[in-house]
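Intended use. Records such as the Branched-chain amino acid ABC transporter permease entry shown here are meant for training and evaluating sequence-to-structure methods. They are not intended to support clinical decisions.
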Amino acid sequence: MSASFKQYSVTTWVGLALFLLLILVPIWGYAAGQAFYVAFFARIVIYAIAVVALNLALGYGGLVSLGHALFLGLGSYSVALPAFYGIDNGWIHLLICVTSCAIVGLVTGAISLRTTGIGFIMITLAFAQMGYFLFVSLKQYGGDDGTSISDTSQFFGLNLGNVYTVYTVSLILLILFTWWMARLRVAPFGMVLRGARQNARRVNAVGFPARRYLLVSYVISAVVCGIAGMLLANLNAFASPSTLSWIISGDLVVMLVLGGLGTIFGPLFGAVAFLGLEEILKIFTAHWLAIFGLVIVMIGLLGRAGIVGFFESMSKPRKAAPKGGQA
């Protein structure tokens, strides 16, 4: 029995414990009548889903995207635009979300992947900004002021506009996506992605078209991020072009780096640390941004593995110092 427990790392135990606490949040919130905190943790869970999506492209594939806010925004407006015309069918919202994100992800990904490095970063950023200004120009839907959503998504009679419902659905999806990423990490598709991140030429040489694999991962990442945007729109009952801002894309990258690039629980740890710390600092000082930036720099110094790397270092056995007179 003890051997079976030892096969799990500290990171895994902390991640599972955090999921357990998140499962208890709506129970506590309902009992204590604290719907605000349920909404706050729902926001964390939804952003964690978006970071999981980015982790597939950036953590596994090495695609440094500053344009994932585009898909978050497309997901939000997949709810807002039909709701503007009184359509509250969640399946229609989901169909619009998946289709639009897949098509836009395919087109933008195919163009962006023709470049690498800083070129890829700038092109993805440019596409996101194009999407931002497109929705700003739609004055009939609120323009840069955004638009409220009176008809939130309905699935089997369940209204995602209810904070407890959207929290439960979001948490279930986060758990499923996290499990899927864990399986993908050791699956052939995931191993090709990670190989392409290290050396795309070698991957091509052994018969795997690296660019095609990266494009597929980018499209899947876009769709998952869009689903997160759809959930966010239902939580806020509001959609705004600010969701497509490059600042949001940067926040997603920071969350992933904080948690740990290419790790299983990194997106969850990063979203909790980023949004949780932000909320705590706002309580104590109006100059929270200065402290927040300093803390992010300190955590960033942990390296590529971020918070996950810190937990992994705790689980590694320390080497005993050699005794005097021995080599």
